[in-house]
Amino acid sequence: MTTSPATIRPATGKLGILTPGLGAVATTFIAGVESIRRGRSKPIGSLTQMATIRLGKRTDKRTPLIREFVPLAGLEDIVFGAWDPIPDDAYTSAKTAGVLEDRDLEPLREFLSSIRPMKAVFDQHYVTRIHGTHVKQGKTKRDLAEQLRQDLRDFKQANGCDRLVVVWCGSTEIYIEPSPVHATLAAFERAMDENHPDIAPSMLYAWAAIMEGVPYNNGAPNLAVDTPALQELALRHGVPISGKDFKTGQTWMKTVIAPALKARMLGLEGWYSTNILGNRDGEVLDDPASFKTKEASKLSVLHTILQPETYPDLYEGFSHVVRINYYPPRGDNKEGWDNIDIVGWMGYPMQIKVNFLCRDSILAAPIVLDLALFSDLASRAGMKGIQEWLSFYYKSPMAAAGLSPEHDLFIQQTKLKNTLRHLMGEEQITHLGLEYYP
Ligand SMILES: NC(=O)c1ccc[n+]([C@@H]2O[C@H](COP(=O)([O-])OP(=O)(O)OC[C@H]3O[C@@H](n4cnc5c(N)ncnc54)[C@H](O)[C@@H]3O)[C@@H](O)[C@H]2O)c1
Question: What is the pLDDT of residue 3?
């Protein structure tokens, strides 16, 4: 199926990428982009920079780079901004995070030191382990959100930006159930005026971004923009939104292995996942209330992929346990173990063990870049509301009401690439392949 190309505004001028949160992920992202711009690193892990896309028939041999196929902002046109309740500049914060070595950080020292966070909208009630001093004051949550809007306008003007995008790289907040205050925009805005506790800071950033016509991408499992109220606002203002929770280490593996089990109709008895992690994120997640938010996000994956309702003989009642243990010596170099009890022919048990020694922020940084560039593309192409094609990057992808999210990494990848083909008026690739055989 071919569609006509969408009208896409060109990516001219500067793109401001703003992150609430200037911690491990955000500083690794910023340092990486600058290092790539200086020719010191390659953009490993980024689809927008390294991946190709097949167009037309296999025999056509057309596989351009994605960045040559769709009009994306160039890395040289990016400017960075952030908010954080800790006033450290990006260099100091990167040193504290301990992800990058001095050999990579020192050449960027001047550049990173010049990136200073704006005062955050922060309340320790929502992230108990962070002691923020660099914080905005305001009578109501709406006042605070209005200050964020002003920050966006000021940043855009001061940096001569043509467009902005926001990618949440802030901490995981306490678990908040969707409630009536999130159900409609009117209720949400009333709740902002009344300082309702169910309105968390991440929601105020989302509201402010959307009000300013700025795409909002949610890298944490916080409810944030995943509410009917803010989806209504995004549609009204024609703004793309995406979330939740970057899919980096263990869950990324889960969304590869679980579809493989299901594809072969192998059963699952149980899946036990544990992690040790010693960075600030690990410390925040050591608080049970923040962990609950993360746990809900990590747990949602298997059920949706395996569909026990459809395959009760294979998947009914499987046990799924996820643990994160804060272990300071490990720093950002997380270690994840998975023990997977599977069931084969005639009910015989087997086990798969995965031991993943990963670097959280090294996996997350290229995701921040891709989400920023793709959501900017979506905005220029007139796409609004939930961007399901960006599910590829998330542990708990947002989906329209009544629709279960797609978790399978390879379906997500097909969705992403087909969306790009669709935008450019190219044929969808179905992999049917009959056309090659007489
Ligand atoms: N690294 C990964 O692989 C990965 C994967 C999925 C999700 N995440 C999520 O990404 C987020 C960032 O991770 P990180 O390792 O950089 O954590 P981090 O603790 O190093 O950085 C988070 C920063 O956010 C700041 N912050 C907290 N509340 C804020 C607010 N209201 N406004 C602005 N800033 C605020 C904190 O002060 C901190 O500096 C976390 O929520 C984490 O759960 C990370």
Answer: 62
Are 253 and 294 within 8 A, CB to CB? no
Provide the residue count of the chain.
438
User: Is ligand 1 within 6 A of the CB of residue 385?
Assistant: no
CA of 59 to the centre of ligand 1 (A): 45
pLDDT digits (tens, 9 = 90+) for 372-414: 999 999 999 999 999 999 999 999 999 998 888 888 999 999 9
> What's the pLDDT score for residue 250?
87
Whether 279 is in the pocket of ligand 1, judged by its Cβ within 6 Å, is yes
Tokens describing residue 219? 């890298």
Residue nearest atom 3 in ligand 1 by C-alpha distance: 360
Pair 28, 360: CB distance under 8 Å:
no
Q: Is 363 in the pocket of ligand 1 (CB under 6 A)?
A: yes
Ligand 1 atom 6 nearest Cα = 246
Low-confidence ranges of the chain (pLDDT < 50): none
CB 377 within 8 A of CB 8: yes
195-253: per-residue pLDDT in tens? 999 999 999 999 999 999 999 999 999 999 999 999 999 999 999 999 999 999 888 99
Q: Is the CB of 117 under 6 A from ligand 1?
A: no
CA distance 438 to 424: 30
Name the nearest CA neighbour of 377 among 48, 31, 30, 37. 48
CATH 3.40.462.10 assigned to 250-357: no
Q: What is the CB-side half-sphere exposure of residue 371 using CA atoms within 13 A?
A: 37
| pTM listed for this prediction | 0.95
Q: In ligand 1, which atom is closest to the CA atom of 202?
A: 31
Ligand 1 atom closest to residue 222's alpha carbon, by position in its atom list: 41
Q: What 3-state DSSP class applies to 383?
A: coil
Annotation: CATH topology of 14-246+361-423: Rossmann fold (3.40.50)
The residue ranges of every structural domain in the chain are 14-246+361-423, 250-357
- How many C-beta neighbours within 10 Å does residue 351 have? 10
Instruction: Collect all residues with Cβ–Cβ distance below 8 Å to 74 and sequence separation of at least 6.
Output: 11
- Report whether residue 360 contacts ligand 1, using a CB cutoff of 6 Å: yes
Decide: 267 and 343 in contact? Cβ < 8 Å: yes
Which stretch of DSSP H or E encloses residue 35? Answer: helix 24-37
How remote is the CA of residue 195 from the centroid of ligand 1, in Å?
24
Q: With DSSP H G I counted as helix, E B as strand and the rest as coil, what are the percentages for the chain, rounded to 5?
A: 45, 15, 40
Closest atom of ligand 1 relative to the 285 alpha carbon: 43
**Top mutation candidate among 86, 115, 281 for ligand 1, by most atoms within 8 Å of CB:** 281
